[in-house]
């Protein structure tokens, strides 16, 4: 009986510890320190740029920002960020199509005749790694 309990404890511990990745994001090239930066971590192609898995808002200091997403399960992700200079909580658009605030995505993904694509922004984390991402707005 004790061996069964020990086995179950090891199994549960392994499941909890297995997927504890960290993603450190450095954002640069802000025009000023006004407002905040909004950073979204996405875990599905179908939700990319719509519903983030995790999100962080941060102040801008010396025209740069560092944020960290902790306890991220193994998987495929993408990051999108924008400089919310007026702190409206959304990316301002001209005519509903052209961003008027600076933005950036993982892997330097940019939109051409539309928003950036999941395929260009995605990356993988696994095995408890710490992934460092540099995004230039």
Element layout with pairings:
Elements: H1 2-18, E1 21-28, E2 36-42, E3 54-59, E4 65-72, E5 75-84, E6 93-94, E7 98-99, E8 103-105, H2 118-121, E9 123-125, E10 130-136
Parallel strand pairs: 1-10
Antiparallel strand pairs: 1-4, 2-3, 2-5, 5-8, 5-9, 6-7
Structure summary:
The protein is α+β, with helices and mostly antiparallel strands and 137 residues long. It has helices at residues 2-18, 118-121, and strands spanning 21-28, 36-42, 54-59, 65-72, 75-84, 93-94, 98-99, 103-105, 123-125, 130-136.
What helical percentage do the residues reach? Answer: 10-25%
Low-confidence regions: none
Instruction: Let me know the average pLDDT.
Output: 88
- The chain-level structural class is alpha+beta
String of helices and strands? HEEEEEEEEHEE
DSSP, total strands: 10
Number of helices: 2
Query: Cα-atom Rg, whole angstroms?
Result: 18 Å
Report the major sheet. Answer: 5 strands, antiparallel
Task: Give the termini distance in whole angstroms.
Answer: 58 Å
Shape: globular
Strand content: 35-45%
Please give a handful of descriptors for the protein shown.
single chain; 137 residues; alpha+beta; 15% helix; 2 helices; three-stranded mixed sheet; globular; five-stranded antiparallel sheet
Explain this structure to me?
This protein is of the alpha+beta class and 137 residues long. Helix content is 15%, strand content 41%. The strands form three sheets. Strands 2, 3, 5, 8 and 9 form a five-stranded antiparallel sheet that branches. The N and C termini lie far apart (58 Å). The model has no long low-confidence stretch (mean pLDDT 88).
